[in-house]
Each structure stands twice: as C-alpha cells, then as structure tokens.
Amino acid sequence: MTYCIAIKLDAGLVFLSDSRTNAGLDQINSFRKMMIYEKTGDRFMALLSAGNLSISQSVRELLQTMTVRDDATGEVLTIWNAKSMFDAARVLGAAVRHVYDRDGVALKRAGVDFNVSMLFGGQIQGEGMRLFQVYSAGNFIEATAETPYFQIGEAKYGKPVLDRVLTADLPLEEATKCALVSMDSTLKSNLSVGLPLDLAVYEVDRFSCNKLVCIDEHNPYFQMLRSNWGERLRAAFDSIEDPQWFGGNSTVPLVMDKPSPIKKITTPEEKLV
Amino acid sequence: MTYCIAIKLDAGLVFLSDSRTNAGLDQINSFRKMMIYEKTGDRFMALLSAGNLSISQSVRELLQTMTVRDDATGEVLTIWNAKSMFDAARVLGAAVRHVYDRDGVALKRAGVDFNVSMLFGGQIQGEGMRLFQVYSAGNFIEATAETPYFQIGEAKYGKPVLDRVLTADLPLEEATKCALVSMDSTLKSNLSVGLPLDLAVYEVDRFSCNKLVCIDEHNPYFQMLRSNWGERLRAAFDSIEDPQWFGGNSTVPLVMDKPSPIKKITTPEEKLV
C-alpha cells in the first residue's frame, strides 16, 4: 500500500509520500511515488500516486507526451503547454484512460481491479495554485478552502490529526509538521506504509520548488517529531481525568441518571426484544 | 458502518460500541450492537457485532439456543453451559455458520457479501477472562497479552491512540478513557459512526457487570473528554518545533546533506528513469 497527502494552503502546497509498495506481504519494495514537473518561472506540478504500481508507472510514462485536443480552440494540450492546472489535470485523466484502454480488459481477465488514484497539484503562470485528486476513471475533483487537503492510499489512520489542525491559512511549516504527524500515525499502525518519505514544499508564485527532501530514519527533524509526538500525545492523554463511575469526587461523572437500554440476557429462554 | 472496541486487561474487560447503522447514505438508523449474557456468579459474556445487520441480528437470535456437540465427550454445549469461553466462542461460530447455511446462497444471488464480524469476550467460572474475534466463516482468534485489544468496523481512525497507549497492565479506568478517545477520533472523521455509545466495563472474577452505561451527547464525562482531547492534542501539536529547512537556529534541521533522489522533470523529452 501507500500513503500520500497533498495540502493546498494560501501560502503554498505541501506534498508528502511514503515509498513502500507490496504485492502480498512477501514482496515488499521501495518505489518513489512522487514526480515533480517543472519549467522554472512558468510551471510547477507535483504528482503523487497510489494503487496498482504497473498502472501508475504507465500513467507517469505516458503523461510526459500525452496530448488532449481542446474542443473549443482545437489546440493540442500537454502538461507542458496547458494554460491552467485544470487542463493539465485533463491531460493526466486522459493518460489514465489511455492505460485503461490498453490494459483494462487483460487486468480484468486476470481478476485485477483497474485501481489507481493520484494527487496532482501545482501552479501555472497566469493563475493561482490548484490541487486535484484523479480517480481510476480519469475524472477528478479539486481541493477548495473548506477542504484544503487530499489523501490517497492508507488514509484513515492519519486523518483525525488533519481534520483537527489543517486550515488554508496555516503557515507552510506548520502544515508540513501536520503532514509528518499524520504520516507518523500511519507508519505506526500500518506495516504496508514505510520509510523513506518524499517531501516537497512549494511557495506560492515561485514556479519552482526549492524544498525537496528525502526523509529516512536518520533525519534529525523526523526523529525528533516522532519521539516528541508520542510522548506529548501520551502526556495529553494522561492529563485528561479518568472516568469515574458513580460520581466520586469528579465533577464529570461517566454515569448519567438514565439507565442503559442494554438488557442483560440471563437465560436461554429470554427473548431479545 | 460501525465501530466497536474490546480490550482485555489484567484487571478486567472493556467493551465499547457505537450505534449507527446505514444502508446507503440515506437510510441511517440507530441499533444497539452490544449484547450482555450473564448468569451472576457463573458467567459474564459480552458480544459486539459489525457487518450486515440482518446477519448479526440472526446470529444473536440463534445464539440463545444454539448447541454444539463436543466430539470428545459427546456433551451438548451452549453458551449457557460451556465450561470455557473457547467453547462458548465455538457455539457462536456455529451460529454464524448456521446463518450462512440458511442465507448465504440467497445473499450471494443478490450480490450481497456474507459479511459479519464479532467481538466476544467474558469469563466463565473456573477459568480466566478471554476475548475472541469471530469472522464471517465462524472461525476465531483470541487476544493475548501482546495484543490486548480487537476492533471491528471502522477501525483505522482510532487505531493509532490504542497502539500508543494500551498495555494489559493498564487500570480499567485508563483503558476506558483510551477506548473513548479512540471512538472520539472515529466519530470526528467518519459520518457512518454515531452516538449514542454503549460501554460495558467488567472487573475480573466478578461474574457480573455492574458498569454498563449508554453515552449520548449529554454525558458530562464524554463532553469533557471530547473538548479537552481536541484542545490538548492541538497544544501537543503546537509544542513541537516547526520544521526548519536550512538549519536555521534549529538543532534538528529537516534537510539532510543527502540530496533527494527525486529528479525534477523539466522537458517532455526527458526520460523518467
């Protein structure tokens, strides 16, 4: 499996991916799931992928030269000349569909789902930053101020902290920290997600990314974050009063006056309802 | 969906379940997912269920009178006379198989998976407490000191805090708090899990449960826990240093000397590998 997060803030974009792939439990490998496409001063785009590796690698290969004809203008669009990230996402969707046309039937015959999902974000000169999630059918949705992040792969373990912390007005550093905490929770609870991580942080209107780093178990910041987060989460947990059943000295008893609707069944003859 | 947790500690057992069921998004209802079976002084058993509601309700109905013949002794076992929780779990497994024999083919024809999973734990006079997870095939696994908890349903959101906090030697109150925090994270991130909650806490060698409570949005302890946990998690997050890219004043820079292996693609002609 995989875990990738992409966040769109007012200040920029954060992309974080793990690098573990597995075909069953006995075939575990390390593959990069992040691609950066860049023409300095003109466009920056990052692509994160999850799902079947043969599909996502094919999509990435094709994306380089994929074209889509614009119905209105007749123009031939690529990710390199598209005037908007929306058009670039259309080109990516077309690449996904192309792989489906080529491999879909044979995969189905082999009992393999056509399973791929991608996060694609960036900025093209002339418009603001945009972030898309692209599905197996080549269709896509866009992040908005209300929902400033997308996740693909093993998304559930690391979702609670994102839901509690992320807003579009966070500074880039804080959102990066939040993505790393979310990844840490996922690494801790799911073996199919593994180090090293790839992190790219893009500052708005820069049209180039100068913050691109590979984080392995020796990275001092990530080491510090993992150990401190574990300790402080535990301290936060310990600081909350334990439940007291029958009031006790607590001002917040667990028991309410209302009796539980759960009926204890005490004989084999008893009716459940 | 559903979220249920059961924890086996040295001091006792904790069972927590939500009460939301849904068939699609527009048919949401409230059903109890916890059953308590009890002969005071002789046995206490709790059953939590997730999956297809028609299956789990049938299993619960059947379990009351289900029998299994013991191959060695010829004895007829029920949950009411079984001398061990292992045998009681066999009776539960047999009830699951009975429902499969009755409904499995018709469900398959309708395109519905035979999907049910259950947590079943308790104590029978003459042995220690035991906790089992029972699968759709009626087979089961048992919790041990190394893995003192099981989850069913929407398990992933609430798993990180369990992995960080739970050990078999925790006091009952602390494990109860941990289960409630895990449930809170799940409630916050997944709409298909909902209040009220049912909570049962069993003290070892009591053979009866006197701590059985229904927790709704008015429960003062759960209200306090939800608001404090949110605040303190945020404070823990804020207390961790933000990442600094190029060292800065930080003793823990995010950047290592090692360059990232991610190659920026800058032209359509560029080879990916």
TrEMBL record, chains A, B:
Q: Which residues form a coiled coil?
A: none
Return the protein name. Answer: Proteasome-type protease
InterPro entries named among the record's database cross-references = Proteasome_sua/b, UCP009120_prtse
**CDD domains per the record?**
proteasome_beta_bacterial
UniProt GO MF annotations: peptidase activity
**Which UniProt keywords are listed?**
Hydrolase, Protease, Proteasome
Q: Name one GO cellular component term.
A: proteasome complex
Q: Does the keyword Heme apply?
A: no
What organism is recorded for this protein? Comamonas jiangduensis
The GO biological-process annotations, alphabetized, read as: proteolysis
